[in-house]
Amino acid sequence: MQGNATxxxxxxxxxxxxxxxxxxxxxxxxxxxxxxxxxxxxxxVANATLPGVAxxxxxxxxxxxxxxxxxxxxxxSVCGAYAPSSFALRSDGRGAxxx
Length: 99
Description:
Elements: E1 9-12, E2 21-25, E3 31-35, E4 39-43, E5 47-49, E6 57-59, E7 66-68, E8 75-77, H1 83-86
Parallel strand pairs: 3-5, 4-6, 5-7, 6-8
Antiparallel strand pairs: 1-4, 2-3
C-alpha cells in the first residue's frame, strides 16, 4: 500500500494509560484487531480479539462482527441490524461475556 489510508476507525478506552492495538490479516483479506484495551469498533474492521486476562469491554457496530473475549471478566456487546440474529456466547474458559 502506498501513501496514507484509513483502514479502520475505532474508539479505545485509554484511562489505564496504555493500550496496544495490532491489525492482523485474516482469511480472505478480512482484517482482525487484537486489542489490549476496551474498545468500540466503528468502521473498517468487523473482527476483534481481546488477548490476555485483563477485564475489558468490546463493542461491535452495525455490520456482522466476530468479537472474541479473553480469560478476564469481559463485557461483549453488539448493536445494529445483525445483533438479534447472530450473537453467540462462548463460555468454555476461552472467553466469557455477559449480556
